């Protein structure tokens, strides 16, 4: 079925077919670049109307904005990847020096050859981009003073009454100033990509205000739930969040935001609908209190995590009320950052009213 229905990649608004092929893996060596599976992702080298090649005296030219962190993957170990692409497409690929942000320039006598090299580079970059940790995420802040206060009381009561339960200790609780809902994650590897993401977020302003009626959205944070099928072995416990009026406005907004960012090529779709959850306890925090979990029901880094027994917490605090507040913004939050309020630094923001 992978051959009949190959996966599709959205790269800068263009759709490519990802064909299943044998993947070649080269181990990292000191002071050398690693390359893994240039043949693992293929696409038809068809002309694309959305790409406009520059015609020169010697043929054709095209420049691609590429974050410098990805240069090594285009070059490959000992330059193998770059040389092979140049040979197979009969083009010349010019890459800036390491550490310098710039453009990769492809030149060749035939436009189809240049386009073939462009396609291969873009698909190769997308494959390695997906292996990079995410750097930013769209978020709804839940750190209203009332919610923070109620959360701290919840933490105090849990530790006072259930600290004897397996794996329950203060290290797995969320930082109250960083309580939030994760809408979707992004891997932005240069200032140029952050700027692009901010522009895409601004494009969402109209439909967001259309959903909210240009008014703040009154939310209720009440009840807790867990993210796997065994309450005795839990990695993530989260607070349930919903509009006070019982509408699906918050879900609609989150799904539309993801849809828009996916169509822009800046975000990969992981689920049909956004899993709205406000993390309050997470075993990832044991080793790194600043860690940000992705919205998932899968257990991540199982071997490095000690799950906790949440059965008594769910029984005693399952309907715990964390408070109500008016939500009025969507943030493009920077991972591993803190602003003057204690929340994540925002690279971009849009408001509901």
TrEMBL record:
Keywords: RNA-binding. GO terms for cellular component: nucleus. It comes from the Eukaryota. The keyword RNA-binding applies. GO terms for molecular function: RNA binding. Residues 58-126 form the K Homology domain. GO terms for biological process: DNA alkylation repair; regulation of DNA-templated transcription. Gene3D superfamilies: Cyclic phosphodiesterase (3.90.1140.10), K Homology domain, type 1 (3.30.1370.10). CDD domains: KH-I_ASCC1. InterPro entries: AKAP7-like_phosphoesterase, ASCC1, KH-I_ASCC1, KH_dom, KH_dom_type_1, KH_dom_type_1_sf. PROSITE patterns: KH_TYPE_1. This is Activating signal cointegrator 1 complex subunit 1. It comes from Scleropages formosus.
